[in-house]
Design goal:
heterodimer, A: 113 residues, mainly beta, six-stranded mixed β-sheet, B: 117 residues, seven-stranded mixed β-sheet, four-stranded antiparallel β-sheet, 11 strands
Chain lengths: 113, 117
């Protein structure tokens, strides 16, 4: 059974703090790892798609790293702002013919002004 | 370029009634995915469709649930004889042909919330 785990489940930080959270996924049969940002009452929005071990991607103050050999990815937010408050989802895409995204439960981030 | 459109956004049904949820993919996208989010759970894959073709329905409950994506018009997720346990948020996503297979992103709609009373 393919399992994707995210930690912590929720996080409260002060405006200006930097923070990071983890996505763990199977280290075998890897094809890609997706990160999405999901604000309440909106649709999940793609942040990154990562495919190569050692990949590091950045979008503004948000960056992500990928370790496919040990099966984890970190998402970092530098200098958190209240508008960063959202649930951050990761999803593992398996290799092979029958590919589907397996989603973690997300990390819910609240940034206090 | 409009995003993925889902309707209705909210639907209330009594037990035993039918629920129909519609999804219009982004323009140019021919692949549609349906996900369900139950309370306190993550997104669960239900079905993956192309126009007039079900590619993968391994996440669909065996009974009462069906999905289609006709040549013309939106994709429809149909739940017959709804029960309280069907209450959930149903999300549709779309991608250009073969995008998910190449590891590229999919685009979500804002979801349809079904409440069964």
């Amino acid at each position: 059974i393919l399992n994707v785990e995210q930690s912590p489940q929720s996080l409260h930080v002060q405006e200006g703090d930097s923070t990071n959270f983890t996505c763990s996924f199977p280290s075998s049969n890897f094809y890609a790892l997706h990160w999405y940002r999901w604000e309440t009452a909106k649709s999940p929005e793609a942040l990154f798609v990562m495919t190569l071990n050692g990949d590091e991607k950045k979008k503004g103050r948000i960056s992500a790293t990928l370790n496919t050999k040990e099966g984890y990815s970190y998402l970092y937010i530098k200098g958190s702002q209240p508008e960063d408050s959202a649930t951050y989802l990761c999803a593992f895409l398996n290799a092979g013919n029958n590919r589907k995204l397996i989603w973690g439960l997300g990390t819910s981030l609240a940034v206090n002004p | 370029n409009a995003g993925v459109m889902q309707n209705p956004r909210h639907l209330v049904r009594r037990r035993g009634q039918e629920a129909r949820l519609r999804c219009s993919p982004m323009k140019g996208h021919s692949h549609v995915y349906w996900y369900r989010q139950l309370p306190e759970e993550g997104l669960k894959f239900m079905v993956y469709l192309q126009k007039e073709n079900i590619i993968d329905e391994s996440g669909m409950p065996k009974e009462r649930f069906s999905a289609e994506f006709p040549k013309e018009g939106p994709s429809i997720l149909r739940i017959q004889q709804v029960v309280r346990g069907d209450s959930a948020a149903y999300f549709c996503a779309s991608s250009p042909m073969g995008q998910i297979a190449s590891g590229n992103t999919i685009y979500f709609g804002e979801g349809s919330w079904l409440t069964v009373v």
